[in-house]
């Protein structure tokens, strides 16, 4: 599959089979993904992998963190259990951290480089037949979550990549044509 096909056919997969993903496959993906462009080769990223028994511990500790933050205060026990079952079905959680050091411009460059590297992860996973979904936002960008995954003081969470063999591949969602977002100078 060529690069264009990979980009056009990649989907955010949220439903996975129970087939395990070999950790060697994840390492293979990461070894290629780190070739993302990054200014002055600062290589600002670090990874925390939850797979196998680590995934089980991760889900338990994530549930404890979310409960402590009141995530389920307005939910029924059934909704809480449903959420836990859903995340328990994700075979691999890969937390991507990036260094927050240097000037504001350097920090921005490092975040952007990390984002490019994350897309590489998703494209490489897709090439190997894996599904992925890049999770970000309120659950992941907290000090509590950073502590859970062992982030150092100078690190922030760029996102959490869910990986696994897809049970369902979602259909393509329509995009706004690039020409509608293009301005000529």
TrEMBL record:
Its EC number is 1.-.-.-. Residues 7-165 form the Nitroreductase domain. Gene3D superfamilies: NADH Oxidase. It is an enzyme of class 1 (oxidoreductase). Keywords: Flavoprotein, FMN, NAD, NADP, Oxidoreductase. The keyword Oxidoreductase applies. The keyword Ion transport does not apply. FMN binds at residues 10-12, 39, 134-136. One of its GO terms (molecular function) is oxidoreductase activity. It holds the Pfam family Nitroreductase. Its cofactor is FMN. Binds 1 FMN per subunit. Belongs to the nitroreductase family. This is Putative NAD(P)H nitroreductase. It comes from Exiguobacterium oxidotolerans.
């Amino acid at each position: 599959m060529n690069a264009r096909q990979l980009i056009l056919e990649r989907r955010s997969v949220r439903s996975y089979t129970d087939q395990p993903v070999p950790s060697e496959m994840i390492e293979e993906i990461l070894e290629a993904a780190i070739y993302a462009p990054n200014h002055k080769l600062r290589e600002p990223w670090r990874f925390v992998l939850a797979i196998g028994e680590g995934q089980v511990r991760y889900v338990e500790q994530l549930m404890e963190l979310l409960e402590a933050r009141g995530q389920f205060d307005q939910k029924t026990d059934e909704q809480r259990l449903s959420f836990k079952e859903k995340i328990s079905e994700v075979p691999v959680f890969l937390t991507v951290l990036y260094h927050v050091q240097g000037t504001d411009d350097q920090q921005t460059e490092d975040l952007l480089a990390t984002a490019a590297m994350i897309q590489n992860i998703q494209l490489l996973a897709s090439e190997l037949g894996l599904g992925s979904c890049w999770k970000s936002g309120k659950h992941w960008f907290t000090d509590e979550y950073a502590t859970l995954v062992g982030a150092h003081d100078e690190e922030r969470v760029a996102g959490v990549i869910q990986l696994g063999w897809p049970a369902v591949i979602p259909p393509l969602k329509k995009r706004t044509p690039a020409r509608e977002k293009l301005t000529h100078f």
